[in-house]
Amino acid sequence: MPDEEPMASHDPLRMRRRLRHEVPAWVEEGARYFITVCCAQRGINQLCQDDVFAVWSGAIGHYVNAGRWWVDVALAMPDHWHALIAFPRFERMAAVVGDWKHYVARQAGVKWQEGFFDHRLRTNESGDEKWAYIAENPVRGGLCAKAEDWPWVWLAGGR
Q: pTM to 2 decimals?
């Protein structure tokens, strides 16, 4: 794809691609994105701890208040998190997410994988579908019986 760059790989037979996360100029401001950010070490609980979650959620709220992004919902799993986020026109998605990750890494000691996954939502139906996916993630992972029981959630306007 033309908007991807090769990413270094330890396996010479396999080249991974790094997405640039640039929003095309024709996309309206406020378009929502489904974002997934993973910890560097998978399978270990790094995010669902009171002290780490306080930094994680506090940083989300700070970036919302600073106008760097608008977050509908963000849900921490032990080794990754999902969110529905929109960005103002003057902010670059990769810069905002990168700055946020850097802050949380410094303050809470979380080690992140390089980059992140994003998918622009094109319809309200798609947004509802992603919202349900995010809410049910801990249930599918066997971490709780009901989505509303999962405590590691940041919601716009509070819980």
A: 0.81
* Residue pointed to by tokens 């709780």: 144
Which pairs count as long-range contacts for 60-63, CB under 8 Å and 24+ apart, including other chains? 60/100, 60/154, 61/154, 63/96, 63/100
Q: What's the CA angle centered on 67, arms 69 and 63, to 5 degrees?
A: 65
DSSP 122: -
Alpha helices in the chain (DSSP H): 50-65, 93-108, 124-140
CA angle at residue 138 from 42 to 124, to 5 degrees? Answer: 110
What is the tens place of the pLDDT at every residue in 23-55?
A: 555 456 668 889 999 999 999 999 999 999 999
Of 12-16, 41-45, 78-82, where does mean pLDDT reach its minimum?
Answer: 12-16
The distance of Cα 34 from the centroid of its chain, to the nearest Å, equals 7
